[in-house]
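User: For my dataset I need records formatted as: sequence, then structure tokens, nothing else. Please produce one.
Assistant:
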Amino acid sequence: MHLPRMVEKIRRHWAGELAAPYIPTLGRGFDDLLCRHLDVPFDDFLEALKACPSGGGLEEAVSRLLPEEVRAPEWNRKLVQRGLAGVSLERLDARKRELKLSHREDILTMCDLLEVNEGRLP
């Protein structure tokens, strides 16, 4: 679920089109969690993307980085549940305060927060 988003963030950053709030989090947050899940350093993704500036061959370059078993269902479940408990809940609450969304009881996960913050949910 997150790999295409991470790739797009990198490409937009290089093009000077990445929104300012996302620049400091590039390679951190969900990007870092995904890289650790896959056991692929973020810099390896950067190198693969540099080798495909026009986008041609990108899928093949990225797929060469991935382990044989990516455990996508496990990753996707972790991603959509991020913010429900523990440290991730504390982080969610902090981000909601930063974004002046503390009153939004419908924002239960970090994915919900992204959807609202990026305008895909009201």
